[in-house]
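Figure 3 (text version): structure tokens given as input.
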């Protein structure tokens, strides 16, 4: 097949999760049977990546596509956006709820305690109290998980989403946003060959989402 002269990235990306689309495009580019030129793949990847906060990837892709003054302009814009991201991320992590999560649940001791409570079946009843949270604060943790997903911090995002599922199952076990988010995180992690998640885990996430969609009639 010859190189495709019409790039469909702009047409299809609005229907896809950009992080998953990028994983697909990165994988496709490495295939020996890829029907598209290296240049066209870089351009498609750049276009999709531009809608995310994956500025490291964006910088590398810009260097493959642009040259001279145009490259310098692109790099300066990406660096500016990266600095803004660092500032906003620091502010987010310093909010009381997120700071508490980082200093309690996300520590080795916190993870061990949560796993013990899950195993004993007490997480749903005692989890929030054990870690010092109140139910209204959990919506801020969910917002945090969504934000760091956009930063491509998949492992941290799924860690928060799993915590929400266990300590407040009434709200979050069947929460479709949490289910979609956890599935997307684990697909991305599997595609990047993370050692902390397996395709078996991901298939289980897909089954849980499918069950919930059947319940809601979607």
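Below: residues designed for each position.
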């Amino acid at each position: 097949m010859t190189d495709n002269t019409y790039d469909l990235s702009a047409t299809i990306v609005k229907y896809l999760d950009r992080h998953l689309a990028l994983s697909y495009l990165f994988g496709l580019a490495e295939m020996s049977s890829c029907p598209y030129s290296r240049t066209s793949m870089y351009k498609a990847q750049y276009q999709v990546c531009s809608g995310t906060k994956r500025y490291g990837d964006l910088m590398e892709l810009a260097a493959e596509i642009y040259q001279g003054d145009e490259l310098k302009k692109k790099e300066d814009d990406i660096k500016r956006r990266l600095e803004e991201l660092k500032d906003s991320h620091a502010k987010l992590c310093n909010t009381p709820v997120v700071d508490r999560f980082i200093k309690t649940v996300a520590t080795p001791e916190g993870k061990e305690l949560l796993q013990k409570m899950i195993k004993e079946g007490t997480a749903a009843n005692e989890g929030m109290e054990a870690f010092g949270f109140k139910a209204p604060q959990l919506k801020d943790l969910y917002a945090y998980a969504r934000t760091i997903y956009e930063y491509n911090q998949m492992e941290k995002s799924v860690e928060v989403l799993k915590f929400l599922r266990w300590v407040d199952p009434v709200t979050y076990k069947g929460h479709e946003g949490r289910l979609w988010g956890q599935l997307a995180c684990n697909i991305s992690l599997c595609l990047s060959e993370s050692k902390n998640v397996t395709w078996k885990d991901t298939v289980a996430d897909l089954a849980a989402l499918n069950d919930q969609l059947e319940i809601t009639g979607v």
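The chain has a mean pLDDT of 89.
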